Amino acid sequence: MSTPTIPPQRAPEPAPVTLEKPALTHGSLPRRAPALTLLAWVGLGLALYLVLDFNPVASGLLAAVGYTAVVHGWSRRVEGPRKAKDRLVTAVVTSSFVVALLPLVSVLGAVLSRGLERFDADFFNNSMRGVVGEGGGAHHALMGTLIVTGLAALISVPIGMLTAIYLVEYGRGRLSRAITFFVDVMTGIPSIVAGLFAYALFELFFGAGVRMGIMGSVALSVLMIPVVVRSTEEMLKLVPNELREASMALAVPKWRTVVRVVLPTALAGIATGVTLAIARVIGETAPLLVTVGITSSDNFNPFDDRMATLSVFSYNQYATPGIPPEPFLDRAWAAAFTLILIVMALNLVARLISRLFAPKTRA
């Protein structure tokens, strides 16, 4: 008699193990949180400076460090360490920019607050002829600045542009390298050296003690030429070679290609560079003090005797005030404020030229 077989029992299946999935996303700071945090710390720095008479440098540094620390800590808690590092670097760059703006804001605030005292119609319509104390103006200095700077631009722009065209389009060999070297050297020379050069040059022909407006223009042109050369050279290098090759493939001469193709394409950048070069030299004082001098009367002839310029006028009024000194100091600050407005206007003109004359591209 056979014994019945007992079927094998299956082992109980283990319960499925559920693994917790790691979070693939983190929270995110509100979109405007960094900007509002920066604004809050800047306001705190201004309050410390204006209300509590705190040191302005210390106020700016405290605002920068506080903003960086708050944004980094907030981001690390909400967004995680990886995003916090990115926030930290961004906050450091932003804080450095804010700290770098402090001297500019301080200068603009001081010039604006003190220059408005004499920023009136009399300041622009009168000269200093016969004025001892209060009154007078800087009409002669304003016109002298425009004349001297205009002649400097008239000298510098053709020389600088032709030099840049030669270096980019024609220059090869030792001569090109020598011109590039001397342009680099001229870029870094002190402005007083340019004034001494112009004075020594004109002294050979007119004798010692000569002062003329054209001398100041020559001195400023020494400072302008390397800036014009460099800016024009960079703009010409940005013109695609395909445009030159297409023009030459049609048997167009090289000079006509440069005049009709290359220069119009780079016109916006060249005009911007020239405008910025003018803004660079219009406020120079040392070379004009040596070459042009100062006068209290109107003189619109740059080839005859001394002329007045705004920079030298401001320096003279501030360095040698009379009694009482307040009218002299007010005129000095007003002249400095006028120079700042002229430079700002030139920079705006440069941006406008760059926008209007830039090559049109299809969207």
TrEMBL record:
The family this protein is said to belong to: Belongs to the binding-protein-dependent transport system permease family. CysTW subfamily.
Superkingdom of source: Bacteria
InterPro entries (alphabetical): MetI-like, MetI-like_sf, Phosphate_PstA, Phosphate_transprt_permease
PANTHER family: PHOSPHATE TRANSPORT SYSTEM PERMEASE PROTEIN PSTA
Coiled-coil blocks: none
Occurrences of domain ABC transmembrane type-1 (ranges): 142-350
Protein name per the record: Phosphate transport system permease protein PstA
Cell membrane listed as a keyword: yes
TM region positions: 33-51, 57-75, 87-112, 141-167, 179-202, 208-229, 258-282, 332-353
Cellular compartment(s): Cell membrane
Keyword Membrane: yes
PROSITE patterns: ABC_TM1 (PS50928)
NCBIfam families in the cross-refs: 3a0107s02c
Keywords: Cell membrane, Membrane, Phosphate transport, Transmembrane, Transmembrane helix, Transport
Topological type in the membrane: Multi-pass membrane protein
Classification lineage: Bacteria, Bacillati, Actinomycetota, Actinomycetes, Kitasatosporales
Role according to the record: Part of the binding-protein-dependent transport system for phosphate; probably responsible for the translocation of the substrate across the membrane.
